[in-house]
Amino acid sequence: MIKIYGKNCVYEAIRKKARMEVFIEDNQVKKDKNILSLLNDKGYKYEVLTKRDMDKKFGMSHQGYGALREDYEIYDEEFLNTFKKEQGRVLILDGIQDPHNLGAILRSVDAFGFDLVILPKNRSVMVTEVVAHVSTGAIEYTKIVYVNSLNNAVSKLKENGFWICGTDAKGTVRSQDIDPSLSLAVIIGSEGFGMSKTLVKQSDYLITIPMVGHVNSLNASVSAGIVLHDLCLTK
Questions:
Q1: Where are the transmembrane segments (predicted)?
Q2: Mean pLDDT in consecutive groups of 10 residues from the start of the chain, 235 residues
Q3: Do 129 and 2 touch, CB atoms closer than 8 A?
Q4: Pick from 13, 35, 41, 42: CA 20 to 30 A from residue 123's CA?
């Protein structure tokens, strides 16, 4: 089980009919007329708690909503054998270790029409309650795969018809210029080290984000948001 908390996070889990125990702060029961209707409509039982008890159970950021949810379904590399280019676009995260970054990236993944996120088992943050909270419910709509080797995962995606788009400050292509008809897998590297050299070599395109300021780097979640947004516009 995993703790989830925050209004949007709990609402989306209810809409997806996740197996969980739901807890609502007594003040929210009075203020939010929709929550009880939604819970009853989806067949959930729930427990009403005081703010003090909610704080004890879920910390200080619950907004009056919390749940003990079954663990999110996480896939392994075998899943990639059957994931074809017609099933959607892919985001590959190379070395993202901050749960806030991963949660924010999942919001962009859902917002801009990507369908699958791939991370390495080593040097990556796992799915935690912080990731779920920061995603504000977007995690409910995204398939997540953890693999032993990103290089092997990229090779498999290429076999399945995907074009690989790395991101690098020395890239030569803007995301707006990529053919929108292509089935794409985008790679975002870590803030400290960027993409690994082997993944750079495997990329069909290297996307750059033009910048005019004094600082020549962006937070990984910001970079992901910009690139995914631009590719969404060309889809």
A1: none
A2: 94 94 91 87 91 93 94 92 83 94 96 94 92 96 95 93 89 84 90 84 89 79 91 74
A3: yes
A4: 13
HSE-up (13 A, CA, CB side) for residue 151? 6
Which helix (H) or strand (E) segment holds residue 102: the answer is helix 99-111
Q: Which two tokens stand for residue 149?
A: 């080797």
- What SS3 state is found at 12? helix
Residue type, 220: A
* Two tokens, residue 47: 């427990």
pTM for the model stands at 0.91
Query: What is the separation of C-alpha 208 from the centre of its chain, rounded to a whole number of angstroms?
Result: 21
Token readout for 38 is 């939604």
Q: Are 194 and 154 in contact (CB under 8 A)?
A: no
pLDDT in tens, 65-78: 999 999 999 999 89
In 121-231, beta strands by DSSP E: 143-147, 163-167, 184-189, 205-207
What would the two tokens of residue 69 be?
A: 């949810």
Two tokens at 89?
């676009």
Paired residues of 119 in beta bridges: 146
Residue 3 host element (H or E): strand 2-5
The dihedral built from the CA positions of residue 96, 101, 103 and 109, taken in this order, carries a sign that is negative
Q: Which among 109, 72, 67, 90 is positioned nearest to 184, based on CA atoms?
A: 90
